[in-house]
User: What shape does this take?
Amino acid sequence: MIIFEIFRGESSLKAKSDENIKKAFNSLRLIVLIGWSIYALGYIFGFITPMIGGGEVNVNTLNIIYNLADFINKILFGLIIWNLAYKDSN
Assistant: This one.
């Protein structure tokens, strides 16, 4: 539902009203698409690797994958919103 809303729903229509909002919204779309995919890749890596004979999962690799996803999904998300608020206040 969230994916639909940000790409085709009412919020995507509202984002077309202002150029700064449009740029921020497009960036947020990419963050959701890419950032959420990284979480899924980490899960697949951790779950599938032992099943296909890849041995035990390297916890450090999973830690890096999930930290990268957290960085994209939380820090970049917040910075984009902050940047939009800063531009909007001028």
Observations:
- The chain has one domain: 2-89.
- The helical segments are 2-7, 10-14, 19-51, 59-89.
- The mean pLDDT is 84.
